[in-house]
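User: Fold this, then the next.

Assistant: Folding the first:
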Amino acid sequence: MARRKIVAGNWKMNKTPSEAVALVEELKPLVASEDVDVVFCVPAIDIIPVAEAVKGTNIAVGAENMYFEEKGAYTGEISPAMLVDAGVKYVVLGHSERREYFAETNETVNKKVLKALEHGITPIMCCGESLEQREQGVTMDFIRQQVKVGLQNVTADQAKTMVIAYEPIWAIGTGKTATTEQAQEVCAGIRACIAEVYDDATAEAIRIQYGGSVNAATAPELFAQADIDGGLVGGAALKPDFGKIVNYK
């Protein structure tokens, strides 16, 4: 059975609550689709108003981060139970910006993945290499480590429900996009890695997105690749063009 495409917008640190609702109202008719899962991953303060604004639509709400403890003295963090109660269905974990600016590691990403799954939240687990790593020829070694550690103690049945987002760090917000061949090659490598960790059925079920300056022009060719099941979209998710990415055919 063909994997259903999933297109998620990662809003990053953009849009106040009132701006977020206005953007949702603008995008709602543009992202309507029966064929693609659509997710808006929004800043924490926007989650509740956006969840209210998307009621009755095909849009699911995602968070951009989450802590791996249930509750406690973790000032500034947000628990999985809080996200579930607010209407969140997905959470972006291990984005390269979180790893770079906030010292997240493969091990902390793994803890978050396990906690999200425990609460029925679908993790969008990010991986990707720097330009230096690509030029050194260690792209797949690096990404395989991210994937394998990120999936530690995750069962095959849990893994099948997850989304993995491949984002080459050198293509995030730079306007550069990996060539279709580069993106497909790495996404196929990730699927092969999952088959090694689990089995072919699990590898076949898991959805793998490409991210990194995805736009309306590049989406159709990228999403047509055998191992690319949609996109994690940054800047273009804040514009009407996001509708063209969702309805890429």
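Now the next one, as you asked:
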Amino acid sequence: MSGSRGIADIGEKVGRDQRLTVDDARRLFAHPNVAELGLLAHAVRMRKHPEPVVTYNVGRNINYTNVCWVRCDFCAFYRPPGSDEGYTLPHEEIFAKIDELVAFGGDEPKSNEILMQGGLNPKLRLDYYEDLLSRIRDRYPSVQLHCLSATEIIYIAHLSKLSLEETIRRLRDAGLDSIPGAGAEILVDEVRDVIGFRKDRTHEWLEVHRAAHGLGMRTTATMMYGHVERVEDRLEHLRLLRELQDETGGFTAFIAWNFQPDETDLGADASRWNGVKATGYDHLRTVAVSRLFLDNFDHFQASWVTQGPKIAQVSLRCGIDDFGSTMLEENVVSAAGTSHTNEMDLANMERLIRDAGFDPVRRNTRYERVATRPRLQALQHAAAS
């Protein structure tokens, strides 16, 4: 199945739907033929999702504040408390952004995704989030609130002197539907000490998602690679995610992207990181191995925001089954000098999916299929003409 004696035994395990070991994944990362890895990963993807379909969702990122005291060295977006460039968006500006999303995506319940994240702003307490989330929930029934990283939730709990479970429960009751996987970076404390030593520890990130799953909420998992980590650190990250998914089954999807060094403190000092931005081959290898190893994850998202449309399209044959979000707005990655959002309107996204041999199908955050509304279809046709 693999076409190579070097990983032929692993290919046989994949063909028998047997779980791979960490050593198997280590060998796959070392395997030079990315095309062979892609074939194996694509076989697994098609076994899980035999229809020739690639999904996407209609969503918008809203970065409600850029004020953050953590000052992660890999981040170009944050501004420290007291900075003249710091902001917290007023509610009406947030509502105006959501109005634009709903006008674009239609009014079917929970069909439009809001990915709302920000920095660790010491002025914002739990009551701020409860008020904002409940107002959005009541005003916009078509919106799925996929918001707040584990890091933000840990900080909110700390400021409020509440347990993680109670904090998440109150956020859920206020309208939070699901939690994104941001903040995972690499789940190895030695790596986290270098790229963001003030951030939460590995066990804390895992505990937020464990607690959310225990409350019946779904979350996503991520990995930001290509900075100071080794292959062994990537393997440990994937192992921890697979173990938690075995325990809870609460992750809906996995998304990997590479470190964007421009305009960051870490990127400015080549002696402190790997020094070379990850290549397209590294990305395809990483997503393929992740699909093969994370056998208990159903969905894997493309990373067109960091990789661009062409690598994202190729990744559809390396284990990826979802193209991610239309992302009407993106600020964090673009702050580091990388932006492909101007290349990715909905018509282009669907064209890329079709040219790769799949049918584009809209879904919501829960990976349920959503009908494409007449207004959205008209906008697609207008963009394509």
